[in-house]
Records
---
Amino acid sequence: MSKILVIGAGGQLGTELTKALSDKYGKDSVLATDFQEAAKAKFDYCAFQTLNVMDKASLASIVSKEGVTQIYHLAAILSALGEKNPVQAWDLNMGGLLNVLEVARDHQIEKVFWPSSIAVFGPNSDKDQTPQRAFKDPNTVYGISKLAGEHWCEYYFNKYGVDVRSLRYPGLIGYKSLAGGGTTDYAVDIYHKAVNGENFTCFLSEHTYLPMMYMDDAIKATLDLMDAPKENISIRTSYNLSGMSFSPKEIHQSLLPFYPNFEIDYQPDFRQQIADSWPNSINDEAAKKDWNWQPAFDLNAMTATIVNNLPQYFNYNESK
Ligand code: AKB
C-alpha cells in the first residue's frame, strides 16, 4: 500500500492536491503536514501532523514511523515574498528540498514530487512559447532557488536513483484556497473581489501577459506525471507545463458578463518587474509527448467555474 506524505499541505496547491490524493489512494494512505498547526482544520478527512521541513530529524522520524512510500514536498516561499526575505527564502526553498532528497535517499522512498515554476526563466529567456531548454537567467531569489532545485532533483536521480519528478507550474488559480506571496496571486484575488461586489486594484499593469493554469488542470498534471511509467520520464529537471495565458485586462473582460459593473484600476508595484521577467507563454511539447499532457480549461471556462462555485464555497452570500 502507498503511504503518501504531503509537506506544506495547508498551502494553495496542497489544500487541493492532498484532497485529490486522498480521493485517489484512500484517506488512510495520506498524511498531511504543515508547519502551521492551524492548517489541521483543513484536513478532517485524513491524518495531519505539524512538520517543519527544515527539521530533518522529525521528517526522517515521520517517514520511518509512518512507513512513507511517496513524498510530495510543496513548502516554499514564493516570488514576491521571497524578494522581501531573500536569505530566508533561499534557506527554506533549498534547505527543505535537500532534507527531502536526503531522507528519500536514506529511506528508499519510491517517488518524490517537487514543484518548480515558470520563475526559472528570466529577462533574457524566450518570451513566447518558451521552450523546455530555453536560456534561463532568473532574477528573483525564488526563481534562482527553483532552478538550482531542479538540478538537485536531476542530480539525486542520476547519482542515487531517487525517482523525483517535477513540473514548472505557471500561476495557479482555484477557488478553494487563497494564494499567498506570489506574483500571479492577483488572478486569484480578483475573483474574490468580483463575487463580493467590490472593485479591484491590480498590482500588475493591464497588458501583462503571464502563463496561468486552473487548479483542476494542475492537479491532473501532477497525478498524471506521478502515474507515468518511469521510463517515459525523459526530463529529470522539471517539465514545462502550459494551460492558458492572459493579461489582467482579459481576466477583467471574462468577468464582465457576470458582473457588468465590476471595475479594475491598475497600480503596478515591485511585482511588475518580476512579471516582466517571466514568459508570456510556455511550450510544453515534452509533457505532451512523454505523458500525454492536455489541459482542459481556458480563461472563459475557468471564470465560469469559479464564479459558479466561489460564493458558496466561501459562504460569501450568507455572510453579507
Ligand atoms: C508566484 O507567482 O510566485 C508563483 C509561481 C508562478 O511560481 N505563483
---
Amino acid sequence: MSLLPAVLAHGQFGHLPPTQEKDQNFLTEERLRLAVEASGLAVWEFDLATGKPVWSRELKLLMEWPEVLPVMDEVFWNIVHPEDRDIVVAAYDAMLGGDAQGYHLEYRYVLPLSGRTLWVAEWARLVRDSDGLPIRVVGAVKDVSKRIEAEERLRLAAEHDALTGLYNRAAFKERLRQACDAGHEYSLVLVDLDDFKQVNDTLGHDAGDQLLLAVAKRFRAACPDSTMARLGGDEFALLLEAGGDPDEVAGHLMNSLDSSLEIKSNRFAVHCSIGTASSSVAGKSPESLLRAADLALYAAKGAGRSRAAAFAPEMLARVERRSAVIATFREAVALEQVEPHYQPKVDLRSGDVVGFEALARWVHPDRGTLTPQAFGDAFSDATSMLALGRAVCRRAATDMRSWLDAGLRFGRVAINISPQGFAVPGIAEIFVAHFAEQGVGPELLEVEITENVLVEGHACQAAEVLRRFKEAGVQIALDDFGTGYASLIHLKRFPIDAIKIDRSFIADMERDRSDSAIVAGVIAMAHSVGLSVIAEGVETDRQAAILREAGCDHAQGFLFGAPMPTVAIPGFRSNRPLDRASSRGHEPRLPSGNR
Ligand code: C2E
Ligand code: MG
Ligand code: MG
C-alpha cells in the first residue's frame, strides 16, 4: 500500500473537487513522488485505527529492512536508539494528545541488521478525518548522519587541542564555569612539565610534540575519568568534581611519569610540577580557582620543581607583597634611586685589578643601601628588569666617563644583562651605542649573562646576539656557572670569553674536597676550550690559594673588595696582596691600559 494516496485523501495537502479528483490525484501523486525522491526523504504512515505502520521503499532501504519482511510498530521502537526513545515518545504523545500538530526531531536509529547508528531528521504530522478525529500519522525521515558528523567534527575541533585530543583552554574554562554554576565543590589540578623547553630547543618541535602527546597518553591512562585539558604549551589541567582528591590525582600524574618516555629513539626522563586548588579554599569562581592553582604551581616550581603544592591563602598574600615590591621598585628606578656599585675583579697571580662588576643597589631614602635581595621579586618582572637595565647602563656610562676624565684605569666594567634585557631586539647595538654616547668604547665593556639566557630564548638567536656583542668588541662572561646547566655544549656553542664559577662552590672548597675537585675540573675544562675563569665570592686567603693552585685566572669577592659606590673607585686599592710570596712587593694596582 502506498502512503501517498492516504496523505492526499486525508488531509494535509487539501481536498480536491470531486469531478477531477481521480486525474488530479494521479497527477499530484506523481508530483509528490518526484518531490519526495528528489528530497531524499523516506516516508511512512501509521494507521491509528489498525496500529499498522507502512514504510515506503526508501524508508526500508534506509533502515536496511528486507522488502519481504513485514513491518510492525515494535520494529520501529526497537530501532530507535535507546537513549533517544524518551524524546521520540514524548513528541509523539504530545502530538496525539493534541498539544501539537506534529513534530520535528533529530535522533538516532540503530539499524537491526548491521548495528550501524544513523542520525535522522524526522517530520511527523497528525492526520484527522472530516470530523476532526485523528486517524493516522504521516512522517518523513532523512538521513542526516553526514551533517551531524561534520558538526561533531567541528565541535570537537573547536573544543579540543589538535595535538593531544584533550580539551583546549576555552573548552576547559567552559567546563569550569559549568562546575561553578552547579554550585558543588570542585578542584583544579594544574600541571607544568619541567624543562620541556629544553627538549623543544635541542631536539626540535616535532620531538616536543611527540613528547607532549606521550605525556598526555600517560596522564589519560592515570586519570581516565577526569576532565582533562592541555591549556597550551606544556601546561595541562584537570577538573575534579564530586569529591575527587586533588592530592591523590597529583600523585597519580607524577607516578605516571616514573618511567622514561622514548621519543625518536631517545629516552627522556620527564618530570612535572603540579599546583592544586579546591573551591572550598580558593573560592568558587573559575578565575579565582585558576589563579589559586597557578600560585600553587608557582610555589611547587619555586620549591625545586618535580613536586606538587596545594594552594594556601598565604600564597596570595605573598603575591600581593611581591606586587607591592615591584611597584615600589619601579618607582625607585624612576626616581633614580637605583645605581650601580662596583666590585673589583683581580688577577689571581699579580693581584692587579682587571675590572669591576656593576651591581645594582637601591639607595633607599630611609632604609639605606639595599642589595638585590631586597628587591628580588622585581627580577621576575620584565618591566622592572628592563628599567633596571637602562638605569644601570646610564649610570655606569656616566661613571666610566668620569673615571676616564680623571685618568683612571679601571679595566673592563661588567654589566649583568637579565634574560628579559637579552631578549630586547638589537640589544647588542643598543648597549654599545649607549656607552659610545659617553665616549666609552666597547673594549672597556663586558656583559655577564646566565645560562638560562641561552636556554630560554631560541639557542640560535642567543648565539646571534652574543656574536654581535663579540663583533662589537664587548667581552662575554657566563655568570653563576655550575648552578644551572653547566653545559659543555654551551661553552662550545656560544662565543663566550670567560666563565664565572658560582660562589656556592667557592664557599665550600675549604671544607669539601669534592668541591675543590669540581672547581679544578671546571678550570681545566674551560682552559682547554680557550676560556678564562673567574671565581666569584672569594672571601678567604685559603680559597684564593686553592684557586691559584688550580690555575684560576681571576677572582672577585669580599677578600678583594665589596661592591662600592662610584665615588670610592678613584681611591680604591685592593687591601689584599694575593700571593704574598709571589706578589711583587706592592699593593694590587688598578690596571694599566685604559688611556
Ligand atoms: P652576580 O652577578 O652573580 O653577582 C655576584 C653577587 O655576589 C653580588 O650580589 C655580590 O655582591 C655578591 N658577592 C660578591 N663577592 C662576595 C663574597 O665574597 N661573598 C658573598 N657572600 N657575596 C659576594 P648582589 O650584588 O647582591 O647581586 C646578586 C645578583 O643580582 C647578581 O649576582 C646578579 O645576578 C643580580 N644583579 C645585580 N645587579 C644587577 C643588574 O644590574 N642587572 C641584572 N640583570 N642583575 C643584577
Ligand atoms: Mg654577575
Ligand atoms: Mg654570579
---
Amino acid sequence: MFSSDDIKKKLGYAAADYVQNGMTIGAGTGTTAYWFLQALAARIKDGLEVVAVPTSAQTARVLREQGVPLKDLNEVDSIDLVIDGADEIDPAFNLIKGGGAAHLQEKMVAAAAKKMLVLADESKLVAVLGKFPLPVEVIPYGYRQVAKKIREKYGIETILRLRDGKPLITDHGHNILDCHFQKIEHLHAVHAWLNQVPGVVDNGLFLGYATATLIGYKDGALVYTEK
Ligand code: 5RP
C-alpha cells in the first residue's frame, strides 16, 4: 500500500509525461501539484522547452527556485495544458478547488487553457460535490454581509478562513469564506448565485474546465481518464 505522499509524488511525475516540447503550461498549486512542479523542472533540466504560467505566488516561487521559465497570464495568448490538483471531483469532472486558497488565479489560468489535467488521489472522488467546504473568495470589506446572505439563502455555516489566528489573505488581497454545503445539487445555479453577491470575487466550483483526470490509488495504480 502506498502512503498519501507517495501517491502524490507518483501522480506529479506521471503528469509531467503529458507535457510536450514547446507547450505553455499552467502550473497548479497544492501538495499534489508540487510534485508535478518538481517533475517538470527535472524534465526541463533534461532539455524540455516549455514556459510555465503559475497559478499562485507559492507555485511561482517553487518554479523560480528550480529555474523554470515563467510567464504571467497577461504575457500569453493561451495555455496549452494546465495541470493542477483538486479538493473534490465528481463523475462529470466538476471540481471543488481552493483548499490552498489559490482558486481565483487557478480558475483564470484554467479558463485560458485548452486542456486541464487534474491530479488527485482516490479520496477526492465523490458522487456529489460539497462535503469539502466550498471556498468563496470575498473582498475583506463587509464580508460579514456576504456570509449572512449565503447563510440566509442556503441555511449553511460559513466560516472565515484563518491562518495563524488571523483572517487568511489570498495572493490577491482577499479573504475566504468556507461554505459548508455538504451536498451541492445544482452546481451551476449555486456558482452563478454566489458570484452575483456584491463582495464575492469568485468561488471554488470549477464547472466544465477539467478535460482529463489522473487518479492515484492506494495500491499504486494510476488511472488516466479523458472526457
Ligand atoms: C489550491 C487547490 C489545490 O489544488 C487543492 O486544494 C488540492 O490540494 P492538495 O493537492 O494539496 O490536496 O485548489 O487552491
